[in-house]
């Protein structure tokens, strides 16, 4: 569940589009409403839960399911979610994509390690 910050933290919103491979629709989330990768992961898991396959759960997208969350930063580069501190991620994220792990190879060294550990 998103943990809302107090109204005293009057920061502009940080809405980004979220897509998931195989899902017929996009979602939009305000990253400023979340306090951590765990909060975001839980929320995304609920949004896209009907598109998980079999026993794999999207709720734990940061710790190895067959889906890997990635994001496009302000420079147009695709990176893996979780590879930079949370605050830096919120400031640099332009959009999110939850992709199949096999497509994440080459995004960052962590993606290769995750795919090898699943084999």
UniProtKB/TrEMBL annotation:
Record's keyword terms, sorted: Auxin signaling pathway, Nucleus, Repressor, Transcription, Transcription regulation
Cellular component GO terms held in the UniProt record: nucleus
SUPFAM superfamilies for this protein: CAD & PB1 domains
Entry's Gene Ontology BP terms: auxin-activated signaling pathway; regulation of DNA-templated transcription
Top-level taxon of the source organism: Eukaryota
Extent of the signal sequence: none
Residue stretches making up the PB1 domain: 13-101
Coiled coil: none
InterPro entries in the cross-refs: AUX/IAA_dom, AUX_IAA, PB1-like
Main location, first listed in the record: nucleus
One Pfam family cited in the UniProt record for this chain: AUX_IAA
PANTHER family: AUXIN-RESPONSIVE PROTEIN IAA13, AUXIN-RESPONSIVE PROTEIN IAA17
Family the entry assigns: Belongs to the Aux/IAA family.
Name this polypeptide is given: Auxin-responsive protein
Organism encoding this protein: Linum tenue
């Amino acid at each position: 569940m998103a943990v809302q910050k107090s109204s005293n933290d009057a920061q502009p919103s940080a809405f980004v589009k979220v897509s998931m491979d195989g899902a017929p629709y996009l979602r939009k989330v305000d990253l400023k409403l979340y306090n951590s990768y765990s909060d975001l992961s839980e929320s995304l898991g609920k949004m896209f839960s009907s598109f998980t396959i079999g026993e794999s759960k999207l709720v734990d997208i940061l710790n190895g399911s067959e889906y890997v969350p990635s994001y496009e930063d302000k420079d147009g580069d695709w990176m893996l979610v979780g590879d930079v501190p949370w605050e830096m991620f919120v400031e640099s994220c332009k959009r999110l994509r939850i992709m199949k792990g096999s497509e994440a190879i080459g995004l960052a060294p962590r993606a290769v390690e995750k795919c090898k550990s699943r084999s």
